[in-house]
Structures are given as structure tokens and as C-alpha cells.
Amino acid sequence: AQSSRASAVGKPAVSAPGPRFTMSEKETRESGGSPEASGVTVSDIQELIRRKEEIEAQIKANYDVLESQKGIGMNEPLVDCEGYPRADVDLYQVRTARHNIVCLQNDHKAVMKQVEEALHQLHARDKEKQARDLAEARKEAMSHGLGQSQDLSPAQAFAIVNSISPGSPASIAGLQVADEIVEFGSVNTQNFQSLQNIGTVVQHSEG
User: What is the mean pLDDT of residues 191-196?
Assistant: First the structure.
């Protein structure tokens, strides 16, 4: 008779997990924002991975319960060939473990999706930062190059040769009419005031 059939006693079924949300989701709920608005950090991803591993451990524990019940698995029938509830397994434990596994597998899919999205956001933010850094580096390089080009601009002439006496030092040095003088001894565009400055340099050289 069915009433005489005793259920086998196995290990206790693993209880279903409590509230299923990640730390980043909880913080987002408290702040009233979205995960995208709050910004993903490496610690958020680490917390998601920790949660994923925790769910995987719970799934394995529930599968161990099924294995302890004659290896009944997720789809084995719970009635015998005569249509009576099986007496060789703990039906309550089997049903509870199966239910937990289904719920945990759904949680696992959700967490894996969150991990994927978080990694995508983190990588996208890193790419944006790299692009900004590259743009700033190029801007700085261009600015530096412009400054150098200004520093290397040709010096301004302060005098033009309009005549040269044959045999003079200027003639011997190879100066020609219309040559521009940008520097003569210590005289240059910055300190030139009159031709007397050049005469002073010549006198000092002769002395």
C-alpha cells in the first residue's frame, strides 16, 4: 500500500538563496540612479564575479542533493512503474533541489549578463580616456612644435649694405651690396640703435 512506503532519508536540501541582487544594483537602488549613471568600477565587476561564483557553488550543492537521491537528476520521474510516488528517494528534497536549481540558473544568466555589460562599459570608458589622452598629447605636441617654429624664425635684419669699398675688410669678408646685416659682433636687432653702435664694435676690435 502507498501508506506503507517510507521515503528514503538523504542530506537536507539546500535552501533557496535570499534576495538576488548584486552590490552595484543595491547601491544603484539606494542612490535612485541607473548602473550606467553611477559608473562601473573594477570593484563592481569583482563583486559581480564573486556573486557568480557563489551562485555556481549553490547550483553544485543542489545537484549534489539530487545525486544523493539515487542520482535522480532534473528530469527523472518521481513515480514508479505503477504510478505511485517513489519510495526510494526523498521527494521533498528532490523537488526543492530542482526548484532551487532552476531559480539559481536564472540568477546565473542575469549575473553573467551584468558582468558582460559592466566589462563593456569599463572598456568603453578606458577607450574614451585613451582617446582624450591622445588628443591632449597631440595638442601639446603641436603647441610645442609651434613654439619651436616661432623660436627658429629668421632673425630680423637691422641694416642693409648699400656700398662696399674695394679692399676693405667687408669686401675681403665677402659682403656684397644689398646684403642684410642681422648681427655684427655684439650688435643685433634687439640692441641696435644707430650705425654708431657698429663703429664702436669696430673700434674695440681694432684696439
Answer: 77
